[in-house]
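Forgive a beginner's question, but would it be possible to get a protein, spelled out as residues, together with the matching structure tokens, please?
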Amino acid sequence: MYNRKTKENQIRKNIIKRMEAQFNFQIKNRKDKRDWEAIEVSYQIHCDRSTSIRYARKLSKIFNSEIRMTQGADPLKASGTYIFEN
């Protein structure tokens, strides 16, 4: 019985660990005419996708800017999600 519970806990931890990923955020003012590749990554977090979208929406409102959110270690080569909140 003890081994079974330990095994179940390990499986749960692995599932949670897999759900978390690195998300990168680039912040671009609406008046900025540069390409996204020229804008540096401002913020990186390790979390699940829904939390990262919440962060991106808040950042967009705070800075009144467009946010590009990418997942993975190389943000400039990945396609991104673009978020702008008024």
